[in-house]
Amino acid sequence: MSQTKMTRRDFLKLTQNALLAVCGLAGLGGVLRYLSYPSQPPAKTEFDLGLATDFSPGSRTVLSDVPAVLIHSQVGFSALSLVCPHLGCTVNMTSNGFTCPCHGSRFLPDGSLRNGPASHPLTALRVEVNSEGHLILFTG
Ligand code: FES
């Protein structure tokens, strides 16, 4: 019966290979978990706001599902994004326009820039009335 003696070098090599195998399996598990992660559905870009007749002339309605305000003026419906063009905070509607709570940019009631640091006005969003009389807001 032959007995092989493991040298210190053999032991270290065996340990090194075992550690490499464990690390490889752990990495492979991470890759598999990443690849099996369900992708998110595309973000919604159309929103049914309900009947146009529910929004009285002269109203300015901050929407609950979308960071936007719906404006019903004498010329019809329009909408402004409430996402600050500076760094993306949600601006607040005030009695004389909009104010960003993050860095203080101010916008006039029509969304135009009053003072920065933002360098652009609020983004106008498209609003249409469909054949059933519902307002459809487009964000994309
Ligand atoms: Fe609005 Fe900076 S994010 S002013």
Tags for this model:
4-stranded antiparallel β-sheet, single chain, binds FE2/S2 (inorganic) cluster, alpha+beta, 140 residues, elongated, 10 strands
How does this model look, in words?
With 140 residues, the protein is an alpha+beta fold. It is 21% helix and 31% strand. It is built from one helix and ten strands; from the N terminus they run αββββββββββ. Strand 5 (92-94) and strand 6 (97-99) form a beta hairpin. The longest helix is centred in the first third of the chain and has 29 residues, at 8-36. The chain is elongated, with a radius of gyration of 29 Å. The relative contact order is 0.15. The mean pLDDT is 90. Bound molecules: FE2/S2 (inorganic) cluster. The site of FE2/S2 (inorganic) cluster (FES) has 10 residues, from loops.
